[in-house]
Design a protein that fits this description.
6 strands; about 20% helix
Length: about 120
């Protein structure tokens, strides 16, 4: 977040990805807060390219359609509906400024944190 109230986010999107081509066609998205018990999804969502793998099909029953071509993981903690406004070149990423249109708190559980991803060796730092 980049404001005191839930209004604006900066979201980094790798260049050349399916996410980028989707945002260029339709600048809306859903930021999803994953629970610690969802760590295995990172292997697919963060380690594979949507240009090579149909992630929605691969997730199967763990994902549901919410609106206009957008999907959410079942069991997430919360989500924020975003409208992407503009982008800045950030090297291998685009840094997108996005407006938070709405949000939903969905369940209480431990959040999937950077520390947990490191512990599971999904992030090597």
């Amino acid at each position: 977040p980049i404001s005191m109230k839930l209004k604006r986010f900066i979201v980094g999107v790798y260049k050349g990805t399916r996410t980028l081509s989707n945002l260029e066609k339709n600048p809306v998205g859903v930021l999803q807060y994953m629970a610690a018990d969802q760590w295995e999804h990172v292997k697919l969502l963060g380690k594979k390219s949507g240009n090579n793998v149909d992630k929605i099909s691969a997730l199967g029953a763990d994902v549901e359609h919410i609106t206009g071509g957008l999907y959410k993981l079942k069991g997430i903690l919360a989500l924020v509906h975003l409208r992407f406004l503009e982008r800045m070149d950030a090297g291998d990423h685009w840094a997108w400024v996005a407006h938070a249109e709405s949000y939903e708190n969905l369940r209480e559980a431990d959040a999937l944190t950077f520390s947990e991803l490191k512990r599971r060796k999904l992030i090597l730092v």
